[in-house]
Design brief:
Distance between the termini: 30 Å
Order of helices and strands: HEEEEHEHEHHHHHHEHEH
Strand content: 15-25%
Helix content: 25-40%
Oligomer: single chain
Number of helices: 11
CATH class of the largest domain: Alpha Beta
Mean pLDDT: 95
CATH architecture of the largest domain: 3-Layer(aba) Sandwich
Shape: globular
Largest sheet: 8 strands, mixed
Number of domains: 2
Length: about 325
């Protein structure tokens, strides 16, 4: 969940706000046009930012995790998200379409190799992209690791996390009749895809409210009710991807395929108290990754806006900038 960095205590670790030096809508086919922007130094270290969700979108705060004198930062809204068109569309919208889109952006911008920065679902996508194109990813910086495994979905949508937040869980589950609560992802899907837009938005806001409530240690990440259009896009796309288990062939696919990227260096920043993506996945990932370094943040949850998470991510990007020559960039 990357709907972000609103906490003043986190913002103090970031670079000052900047504006893009380039924006475009990139036609990637299938009726989709992606919003793409570039920030920082046009000749800097290229890095692509992969937002969370699925269904989130980039925000201006995401530009600020990189020294603008050192990095050429590429941000884009994935299919159906943010300023990409059409909004909330699940047509031709799968993990493998998104990986193709990342390559299309890289080719359009004439970037031979780049770093990949992603959190939550963005970390999932970063890993799958690197495994599909191991020669294109120079380094990975990941946060709040999600591996699209059944145990992770069960944790968040079958009552695991609800044991720590029973009041919010009841509010989320009580939206659904008792006889449908054995599979809340499927139950919400019926309401997000088989009803009119008013009903879709109503349930989409409930879907987002559950996730937002657990995003930070302080439990204050929601920032009020999610705007209707954002909530609808986020909930529909996230639910769509979860119903299909990310179009992966097997449950442990990412972990099993880590030998494909054993040569790529990476930093994983993980909140010790992440209630959305528990630390077990980040730990197992780095255990299987010879060049992956786990940086566990003691007093932090899932959100990009957690102060300790933001501080460590900026430290990671600064460290990479100092060693850019080692990455061939």
């Amino acid at each position: 969940m990357d709907r972000v960095a609103g906490h003043k205590s986190a913002l103090r670790y970031l670079y000052p706000p900047i504006e893009p030096f380039d924006r475009c809508l990139l036609d990637v086919g299938d009726g989709h046009k992606l919003y793409v922007e570039q920030c920082g130094h046009p000749d800097g270290i290229p890095v692509v930012v992969l937002h969370g969700g699925p269904g989130g979108g980039c925000s201006p705060a995401m530009r600020r995790y990189f020294d603008p004198e050192c990095y050429r930062v590429v941000l884009f809204d994935q299919r159906g998200c943010g300023m990409s068109k059409p909004s909330a569309s699940i047509h031709a919208n799968t993990t493998w379409h998104l990986i193709g889109d990342i390559e299309a952006i890289r080719e359009r911008l004439d970037i031979p190799r780049w770093g990949v920065f992603g959190g939550s679902w963005g970390a999932t996508l970063a890993l799958l992209y690197a495994q599909k194109h191991p020669g294109r990813a120079a380094f990975l910086v990941l946060r709040g690791v999600f591996l699209m495994m059944q145990r992770e979905l069960d944790w968040f949508y079958a009552g695991g996390a609800g044991q720590f937040h029973p009041e919010e869980w009841r509010r989320f589950a009580d939206m659904i009749p008792v006889e449908e609560r054995d599979d809340l992802i499927a139950a919400y899907a019926r309401r997000l895809f088989e009803t009119d837009i008013t009903e879709q938005t109503y349930f989409a806001r409930a879907w987002c409210r559950w996730e937002n409530a657990l995003a930070t240690v302080a439990g204050d990440a929601a920032g009020g009710e999610a705007p209707g259009p954002y909530a609808r896009a986020f909930a529909r796309l996230e639910n769509h991807y979860f119903q299909h288990h990310g179009w992966l062939d097997r449950d442990r696919q990412i972990l099993d395929d880590m030998p494909l990227i054993a040569h790529i260096p990476g930093i994983v920043v993980q909140g010790r108290h992440d209630m959305i993506c528990p630390p077990r996945s980040a730990w197992e990932l780095t255990e299987a990754w010879p060049r992956g370094e786990l940086r566990m943040i003691g007093l932090a949850g899932h959100a990009l806006s957690e102060p300790g998470i933001s501080e460590e991510l900026v430290r990671a990007t600064n460290g990479i900038a100092r060693q850019a020559a080692q990455f061939g960039l």
